[in-house]
Amino acid sequence: MGYNLLDALNVRVVGSGDRYLVLAHGFGTDQSVWQRILPLFTPSYRIILYDLVCAGSVNPDYFDFTRYTTLDPYVDDLFNILKALGVDRCAYVGHSVSAMIGILASIRRPQLFSKLILIGASPRCVFFTVELVLGILIELYGWDIKNAKLWFSRFLNDEDYHGGFEQGEIEKVFSAMEANYEAWVNGFAPLAVGADVPTAVREFSRTLFNMRPDISLFVSRTVFNSDLRGVLGLVRVPCCVIQTSRDVSVPASVADYFRTHLGGRTTVEILRTEGHLPHLTAPALLSQVIRRALSR
Amino acid sequence: MPTSVTAARQFLTEETASALDEAVAVARRRSHAQTTSLHAVSALLSLPSSTLREACTRARSSAYPSRLQFRALELSVGVSLDRLPSSKSDEDPPISNSLMAAIKRSQASQRRHPESYHLQQLHSSNNSNAIATGCSQAQAILKVELKYLILSILDDPIVSRVFGEAGFRSCDIKLALVRPPVTQVSSRFSRAHCPPIFLCNLTDSVSGRVGYNLLFPGQEDGVDENCKRISEVMAKNSGKSPLLVGVCAIEALRAFTESLTKGKSGILDGDLAGLIVISIEKEINEIVNEGNEEKMGLKLKEVEATLEKCNGSGGGGVVLHFGDLKGLIFDGALGDFVSPLVLRLASLMEVYRRRLWLMGAVDSVEIYRKFCDKFPNVEKDWDLQLLPITSSKSSFDGAYPKSSLMRSFVPFGGLFPTPSDLKSPLSGWNQSIPRCNLCNEKYEQEVDALKKAGSAVSVADQYSENLPSWLRMAAVDTGKGEDVAKTKAGESMLSAKVFGLQKKWNDICQRVHCTPTFTKSDINPSMSQVPIVKGPQFSMDQKQTSNGDLSINESLFPNQSPGRQIHMQTNFLPKSTPSISCTSEGRNMNFHSVLHVDVPSVTQQTDKDVPWFHHPQQSLSSCSGRTPSSFVPPVTTDLKLGTIYASTTQESKTTKSLNHREHLQRFSGSVSTEFDANSEVTSYQFAQSSSCSVPSSGEQFDLGDYKSIKKALAEKVGWQDEAVNSVSQAVSQVRHKYRSFRGINCKGDNWLTFLGPDRVGKKRIASALADVLFGSQECLVSLDLSSQGKLGHPNSIFECKELNRHDEMSRGKTVSDLIAEELRKKPHSVVFLENVDKADYGVQHSLDLAIRTGKFPDSHGREISINNMVLITTSSSITKGNVNVICGNKDVKFPERRILGAKNWQMQILVGSASDDAGKSNYMGVRVTTVKEASTFTSANKRKTRNAVESSELEKTDTGEREHKVPRSCLDLNFPVEEADEEDMGLGLSKSESSESSENWWEELFSQVYKKIHFKPFDFDEVADKIVKEISSQCQRTVGTEVALEIDEEVMVQMLAAAWLSDKKEAIEDWVAEVLGRSLAEAGQKYNLTPQSVLKLVAYKGDVVKEQAPGIRLPAKINLN
Question: What superfamily would CATH give domain B5-119+141-178?
Fold first, then answer.
């Protein structure tokens, strides 16, 4: 790879305990997003934190546009990290994209994972990415929401697009946006964070903006083109799907979909809060649930 | 949230800051709203000794005159800048997010590259412009150097596109920036071999690559990730046969086999080079569908032969690809041909291991499992390895240049898309209402002007489009598509504008020159828009428009309230969205605005001080001549609960009907006969509305007088005599007080509290008050504070529409903000806050302040004066002194809580013979049954049992309890861990505590209000008895006395809820007579009813009422089974 992976992806191991716990952040954030979750787990776990290669905190030079065209290279990164650290079994907490990565990783090497905890996951990441891409367009490039929508619908009608979106789904996203118009005007970050937590909004905006725009669009395209339906049955590792009761990006039905389709023993936890980033907005609540899920 | 220039400057070195100042100056000159990366590029290029320009010089191809290429670059930057929206402002345009993000990124990358300082210093002598270094390191804030800023800006897709248009690759420029120009000569030499990429002489493939590389620097032709994984599986020591799993698996399989057949290099290397792909997909299909095994046999022989050859030569192999596994699962009707095939393949695998690979794809694991169930050994025999495929992108090269993800990153300066089909339905209608000559002329003038302007725009557009397109040819081939799309957008915008103009002049014409329009026969179509059938169509129109532009919508329907009466019928459509009423209002508006000057506007024009103490009538007379053109419509934003009462709006204000009548009479002489025909329609509606408003309209506006208020209120809510009494007393007292001591403002005087049950009654009184005090029921802000954070009951009869409206609106806002927003919209209104006892803390706080200071604060600290409002808070709970009122009557058959849970189900009549106890008890008539136990508890035969309800009531109590919980605010950051814990585990404890504290709170609040008014429970039992009687007599009339009718209790609840909600007193009786009677008669005809047969009226669960009967929220027809 030509560079030290652990350095490049800012891998950190904190805490004292005999079990390993991987905290993998989602799209638009970096490992700092777990800051508020950490204290609860450091006494009993050795926590592995790392940044996805697309995160803003990673040197963008490391992002190889030829390599990261699907989610599998991200899985490889994860394996490489765990190998370098000499980890042979761990629990894995993944948010949004990382949840997808975790699912794929557990399919490829089931013995490596004792438990998967998926936060704000979606088998297709449909909603989050649509909104994220539009959010980037609107917020980062100062686009008008209408321009963004027009651009987006053209993108979907493109013959090269094979993401398996049906027009109806897009319409749903759009009409949700329409209804949320005022919230959108105020920016994507507050919307994704979902609650009036200014610090969380600021934090998310910071990490979101740290991403190089071309990289963030490239990655969202990758996620767009990903579809985990059909392979979920291959997961054998026990899973816990955590979802907030209201998440712009993930419709409530997704949890049920996971429950019925994931191959392993699966539990679903609904957090009584809103937003796509419960680790920023409701860390106490989330920690509770994660701890409970880990102990099962 | 753009950043101010000064804030941004502090991150920059002096040199960079001056460059930024240049950029800001560029933005200011063009009067743009923000300073973007493009401005920065423009500034950087124009700097006297420009690093960027210099880097470009080195990066560009020498085969082309540099002057020309730079000219192209300037043009393309200029064109892009032209597209940005401009705005007038005296201040410096702030730094846009994208530029600020670039600054931050460059800061980060500078931090990562401390070693390059050294490098720069080494070469700074070579660089004509010395880059400031070193000094910045020492300072606390890492100041961004120009070079890094330029590098970051080049990452911006907009910028790299602009460079691309001029034939520069931003990656080359970056390289040139990073690498000092030591080997200039040689690099130039080498570059000379490259063709100038922005010339039109490029082949597609090259241009593809160029475009691609422009966007993603450093990218080479990549091997598709999926293919790589597949080959990994095949190449592993064991050489497994990959079975691709996933939704995109089949596509990936196709891509892989195709590239194998094409012999593309790089996909399979080493041992796997030179594999031959043989597909048996078609043959399998033939076997399964036609039982034709012949071809398969031949094919497999061919495979064997090939394999033999490979064995002999010692290299190569065969990939046998069977396509979708589904094909093998599906059993043909012709018998089992699959099992022999599976075995045959297995034996082939056995023989030619390491030479033969099977390959296939399957949609999902489940299907594969099914396959395995059928052929348990197949995984081993075929040597299969499952490979999850999650990405559909089969190949990135070739696809990327066309990638629309990166396409058109440049905003369409100022253009906004409007649905192009917008005009078709609406404009067609529009033309049916002609304007008078004068207005028409003006309208046409304006359209002409607009068209000229429009064409100017489009010319400019073409110009701007043409310019870059010759430059662009070499780059991304998006030009065309964009052009077309733009023209479309332009067109549709034009048509939208024309449409708006039509609308405007129609309105003006009809308002100002009413009579000429009126006599035209065209009023006919406009009237015929009213019937229900048209509703859905309208809603679609509305949706289209709303997709386009919100502002257009508003201007389309500037005059909402007058239309109310006529279109209200559409509200009975169960699924009607708010937009229906909106649209039809818009349509009817023209007609109505002629008829009368609408009252709310009058109210608005009156003294702003304390308008509700004036008589609307007084001001009416003074203002009646004025056109309400400047009038901003009082948008009904009934939140959540408001939906329940949509039908109440049907009771129109008496003023209105009065006005209508007067005007009608006045006009009737002058208008044509056609209008008379129409007036029938109108009068029908008037009849409907007047039945629920005061019959003699002259008396009603005898306001200020307690009696008249009382009368107006009692008309709406006949059953709450005492409450009506107290409300009217309170209002007239306060009014009097204000009149005698003007200026004295006792806080809390304009506050009332409604306590006790009867939710509908309370709401109705509030809306009646709004009508009386402010002249319109629209002047009501209604919000249910308990509904925060919990979902409404699906299919409830109380919310046929706008189910989620509240949810959508409240996203990202606190309840206080929501209230404040509504208050701001309607400064003169009755504010109706339901269930204040369940308000969250923020609202409690706001209300506390509001009652003490007369100003309602929102969460941002802004305050809204509420002195011109009447605030009504309600609570269904009983205050401590009031306990006995409700607890007095314990055995209520139908408590309100149960009625509130009523669903809006379709009803159904079932015919059964002698159910359960009907054998023993030979009684006839009507009775109400619960579903579980058929015990009768109320009937026309005066048999009364009460325990039947109890079980279901218990259930209800449970849900009621849950609703009681104080809605938690969503901010969890401030919640300590323990608290969250408690929430999770000890629900009971925390709940009781919190509810106690909130109880204290609202009791305190209630003590400050002017008057507390207690409401009696609505006597559902009485109504139930009445209904049963009514039905029973109806039943006897239609199907005879010997047939018994059982009414499911749920239906009973539904009927009661409907009766409660309905405005007409006799609505339920009418419904029984018409709808139920008709259905019973039909049932009587359809079935041979014997004395033993029992008709059952049950709710058809899961099927929501599609068509409602007029005047009541009950189905317009009942299904027969």
Answer: Clp, N-terminal domain (1.10.1780.10)
